[in-house]
Amino acid sequence: MSSAGGALWGAFDETWRRHAANEFLHLPATVHGQVATWSYSSAREAIDRITRRLEDAGVQAGHRIGLALDNRPEFFLYFLALNRIGASVVPVNAAMSREELSYVLSHADVAAVLADERHLESLRAALPAQVALWAESGRQAAAAFLGKPMAAASEAALLYTSGTTGRPKGCILTQEYFEQLGRLYLGIGGYCSFRPGVERLITPLPVTHMNALGCSLMAMLLSGGCLIQLDRFHPSSWWRSLRLSRATCFHYLGVMPAMLLRAPASAEDDLSGTLRFGFGAGVDPRHHAAFERRFGVPLIEAWAMTETGAGAWITASEEPRHVGERCFGRAPAGLQWRVVRDQGTDAACGEPGELWVRRAGENPRAGFFGGYYKDQAGTDAAWREGWFHSGDIVRVDAQGSFFFVDRLKNVIRRSGENIAAVEVESVLLQHPAVQACAITAVADEVRGEEVFAVVVLQAAARPAAATARELQAHCLDALSYFKAPGYFSFVPELPQTASQKLARGQVKQLAAECLDGGQAIDLRGAKKRPFSQRSS
Question: pTM of the entire structure?
């Protein structure tokens, strides 16, 4: 059985020696009706068993293994076991459409996929012929020919994130990436100070995203704390989950405070005696102060990307936090940054521009992702002129505080999911009734943003609600449910620039006007999470 393994396994092994009796993973009773807990000692025993099974099945160093295990604590046991062997993981969102799954699993060169039994049928239909599919329950063949290992020794995970070209991009995340991510989070200080062996961090965020996969896992693993991984965010049982699990801090997305504030006030609202902080991004300015007043817990806003990792991470963990102003803190030592106008010149103090970042010193990419897999051109474009181009529009005040303004990239962020407009547009254009279309974001009180489709129909098609429902159903067949448009508006033509390009700024304004004027067809109620993805 492997003993050396990767850096993540080494970090776990070291913590196990110091905190064997501490709880490492916990599932509160509110999720599935019964408590599940792994101490560092029992987790070590489980990882030993998993490692033997994986090695018996033919997994070697350098293999990439897809993990379609949903938001379950067991995901992290498999992650660590694979890291121990020297294999890389590809977190798989089983809610993706067959086409999306097929693209990711083929592009990633996975040797095998480990899946929850509920997802075996859909994954089998999407998998390339040569890829093994195993049930996480253990009912797989004793061994399989898994093909040539494709991952470098430095790679710990290949994480897919939406890009502006429509297809997800595979971000190479190294062993160093994860280690630095955890150590940076533990060292932020201020409101986000961690007590070794004491903290219990609860999160409903997807294990297919950098936040849960890297930030929360590594912070707890490196400090001897406990990670409480929920299947998803349940507003009605959120505070009860925190109480039962004895959480001391939590991770959030902007959609969560909005939902929690809508619930009736309760005597159980105030957890300020035990709950120390919430950490996240995107809280609506209207909700930030109201949440802190009602629940007695500071919401600490931060900025980072999968690509930037610990290389460029800014956190409002100290005052002034500028609550309710979309402030995400001041640049830490070692981070170089520019705020750049469209013309490529530096913006003046307080003037909006795109945020460019890099590390100071000899290696400007230290702590960042290792690049986009099979996309050197995309990697080079992201690092134009020696700076990482974030695609986010920000402004910086005279005291150095950063404020989020807008997103340069045409990506819609709905309930924490990044949705590439081009991807949705390409699906809509496959429908015979559509002549042209544009996808944009509109504000949503609960989900942050919603997908809005502005459509030019073919002459024979009728601009009616029935047509909109047909187009949405077409998208739901081809895309994950959250990517389908929630609103439709039919127009005679799309706004264009003088060079005959789509004027996306005007499209966004048009969508907002249609929404405000009651001219949009609202189909948000038809966007439903697949049954297999709902909590039991």
Answer: 0.86
